[in-house]
Amino acid sequence: MEARPSLCNAAYQTQALLGSAGEKLLQEKFSTEKRAQAFYSHQVLNYLNERMREFIACQEMVFIATADEHGESDCSFRAGPKGFVEVVNERELRYPEYRGNGVMASLGNLVGNAHVGMLFIDFFESKIGLHVNGTARIVEEPCYADPELQKTAEGSRAGSPVEHWVEVKVEEAYIHCSKHIPRLKKVPKDIFLGTDEAVRKGGDYFGVKRAKEQRVKP
Description:
218 residues, alpha+beta, Pnp Oxidase, Chain A, 7-stranded antiparallel beta sheet, 7 strands
């Protein structure tokens, strides 16, 4: 049987399970307190249990939500080979930041506001999602307490254009139910991690560059 983490911080856990002030306000307004409390009590953890850790280790994508110090929000998408989001332990995750457009919107938000929300969705088999909320920090190169884990991780990342790493301390973890998640089917596609080739990146798909150029013409 999996060992449960220490319950010494009971005050924090109780507060986390109760949800935000906004949640409570709307639960009362729409009379959903009973359902919400059942969900908090039965489905929300402040750590990753064994099944959650196994689920994350099989995922190839994750949606990441951040906000800056003023609350201006951003939602982004990250993908990689299975296990690209590394489960360090029941309280910590780590994911790579591959070379991108240089804007660094997500990382920039984390500089001013460390809170992060992650959503893993298995579109292909279980059709289940997993929310992981916590605080994050940017690191240049991760450290491993276990030499074997370091060797395995370095082998899986060989040749990957990783520029930074983000370490996430887990504060909440809970299910996203299956009922509205579509089942998708994988088809062959070449992946070019970190490429700067315009055609591989989608080019000016939405015509923004062309529209801006036309607007500035005399």
